[in-house]
Design a protein that fits this description.
There is one protein chain. By secondary structure, the protein is of the alpha/beta class. It folds into 2 domains: 127 residues, Periplasmic binding protein-like II (D-Maltodextrin-Binding Protein, domain 2), CATH 3.40.190.10; 97 residues, Periplasmic binding protein-like II (D-Maltodextrin-Binding Protein, domain 2, 3-Layer(aba) Sandwich). It is built from 10 helices and 11 strands. The strands form 2 sheets. It has a 6-stranded mixed sheet. A 5-stranded mixed sheet has the order 7-6-8-5-9, with helices on both faces. Helix 2 links the parallel strand 1 and strand 2. The radius of gyration is 19 Å and the shape is elongated.
């Protein structure tokens, strides 16, 4: 009886696969929603490219919240998301971070080429949105080729941040929202919006969602003023 008494009954359970950069904001939003609805949300955070691959392979997911449009585009072409539920809710900005204590002196991105920066951590630049955005920016600045030997690839944007925190890289290009959650790094340079690729975070209901109605209710909650305030607190740009 004691074991049964401790089991909690939820109104519904559903799975949300979301970009790693959304971790802190969605955990706070999820806790509020669970209390409000009685539902249980299981979050799966990681690189958007890997999460999309998992969905293609049939991994449990009711909602996909990507850090770029390309991953959602690919799933939509394969009829793996419900097209009419797709919305772009957020944007972000890119920053160059260094160690908070005695980090490299960087005042612009051209300083990345100098001798004071030997290793630059980036999320994987071919498939992970944060890495793709960073690569596109560096290519636009004509710095990509000259920085090739310094690049330290990481699994996702949180990995790039962790590399600087651990002293395994002198600098990293990450989202501003990631820089904001770490006391071990500081922003050395904020990349102007005019120089940055367009950053968009779309979400959608997954076609094979096990609890589509509950997932749709959470998607609706993500459009509320309450969640907008939380996203802004974590540094996201909320799109109207």
């Amino acid at each position: 009886m004691g074991v049964l008494a401790n089991l909690q009954t939820f109104a519904a359970e559903f799975y949300v696969s979301a970009a790693a950069s959304l971790t802190d904001a969605l955990k706070e939003i999820g806790a509020i929603y669970e209390k409000k609805s009685g539902d249980k949300i299981y979050f799966n955070f990681g690189a958007s490219s890997f999460l999309a691959y998992q969905i293609e392979q049939g991994a449990p997911a009711d909602i996909f919240f990507s850090a770029d449009e390309a991953r959602i585009d690919a799933l939509e072409k394969k009829n793996l998301i419900v097209k009419e539920t797709r919305k772009s809710r957020l944007s972000n900005s890119l920053v160059v971070v260094v160690a908070a204590d005695r980090g490299a002196a960087i005042s612009n991105t051209k300083d990345l080429v100098s001798e004071k920066v030997k290793r630059i951590a980036l999320a994987e630049t071919r498939t992970v949105p944060a890495g793709i955005y960073a690569r596109e920016f560096l290519q636009k600045q004509n710095l990509w080729v000259s920085l090739q030997s310094k690049i330290v690839p990481t699994e996702n944007v949180r990995g790039a941040l962790a590399a600087v925190e651990a002293g395994n890289a002198d600098a990293a290009i990450v989202y501003k929202t990631d820089a904001a959650i770490s006391k071990k790094v500081k922003i050395a340079y904020e990349i102007p919006a005019k120089d940055s690729p367009a950053i968009s975070y779309p979400s959608a209901l997954v076609k094979d969602a096990k609890n589509p109605e509950s997932a749709k209710a959470f998607l609706k909650f993500l459009e509320s003023d309450q969640t907008a305030e939380i996203f802004r607190k974590f540094g996201f740009i909320v799109l109207k």
